[in-house]
Specification:
single chain; mainly beta; 4-stranded mixed β-sheet; 6 strands; binds zinc ion
């Protein structure tokens, strides 16, 4: 789903001291949507429009997506997504 984005890693290096949240997708029920831990906006990992969030980092483990770091467009919080199912 999101893995084809891994090569367009843009250097979005804004030095902010925003808190980093971690979401374990393996513990989320349903279709994988979750609320932003800071502002509560609904985030869907399958949403590729970047209206709600922006992908800032992708970490692969072999062929599989291991970790995804996104930034909420509403409150600018960084959210680390772990627990992707292979
Ligand atoms: Zn937010």
């Amino acid at each position: 789903m999101i893995r084809q984005r891994q090569k367009e890693k843009e250097p979005r290096m804004k030095q902010t001291n925003q808190e980093m949240f971690t979401i374990d997708l393996a513990r989320i029920e349903g279709n994988g949507d979750f609320p932003c831990p800071n502002c509560g906006v609904s985030i869907s990992p399958d949403d590729q429009t970047e209206n709600v969030y922006t992908i800032v980092d992708t970490r692969m483990k072999g062929e599989d997506l291991e970790e995804l770091t996104i930034q909420c467009n509403k409150c600018r919080s960084k959210i680390r997504l772990v627990g992707f199912q292979p």
